[in-house]
Amino acid sequence: MLGNNYNKIFKTLKLLTIITLSVSVQFVFFIFFVSATEISDSINTSLNEYSHYLDKGIEHLNSGNFVLAKEYLSVAQQFAPQNPDPLINLAVANIFQEKFDEALRLLNTANTLISESYPNKHILLYNIGLCYYHKNQYKKAQDWFREALDLNPQFSEAAASIQRINSIIGYETEKTQKHEQKNTVIDQAQHSKTIEETLLGFEEENTADKYRASKLLQSAENSFKNNDNKKAQALINEAISLNPNDPRAYYRLGCVYLKGDDLDNAAAAFQAAIKKDPGYAKAHTNLGGIYARKKNYKEGLKYLNKAALLEPNNPKTYYNIAMIHLALGKEKEALNNLETAKRLCHQTNDSQLLAAINRISFKK
Fold first, then answer.
1. What pTM value is reported for the model?
2. What string of DSSP letters covers 206-223?
């Protein structure tokens, strides 16, 4: 047997080339026949090892052990350097660790390797956009999100991310465009003044409803802080009636239910927030926490891992992930996530969560 990796295969091929220069045709054929079989066996072994390291890397990635995930994925990439999958998963690990430049390097390399038939190109493009988003390069991020959406028009997360960026950088542009459109209508349609006033009145009324809804949410926040949950809930419901498309309203409603320990209604509210904005990281975090409390750990990890990807600097997310691993008896994974949470607590001055982390003890 030639061994279990490509380097050994290539060394053997080089040796065979030397042998063929100094032996008879019959002997050369025999050597080639045996070696070709060995090469085939070795390639099969290499493919099996590739799958093993890739699967283990993804397993550690999902469990939050990013250091070990990167070790396994790097080995998988050595076995199959032309396969983009290890690179993409390595990039995801780096995104979790907020190493966005390294993630971009890996994703761009993977992008050069994929074929036209590659099924998940839209996810690769989305992750490139996510890196630029976290680097506050919103225009570049938006371009990549749009490319992802062009490839898969049903990719709701890309659509939500574009919408989120528009809310950050697009407000002034949109305001200017509306002003220009309004002036054009007035200039070109003076004879339709009544219709125009009706349209403008509708737009102003719609804007006024959104403004009132926003004010109601602010009042609800104050009531929530003052432990007046009943009043907060009433104000939020009124805000939703005025502006049913605002994901913040559903998120805050979920927080009210969660404070009252009404897990089912809280979960429904957070799910509504995510439906309105699939990139709403805090809603993912809270929904994952609810599933953890219900001991549905698989669903909990699914939402929490998504939250960590969307908002990698939130210590509560990693704390909740750690609690799930602790409940599953995976102390190593729990410790890794607690260390991440602790580091982020120092960065965000979250002394309350830091105290909770420091109270956790592990079996010796």
1. 0.55
2. HHHHHHHHHHHHHHHHHH
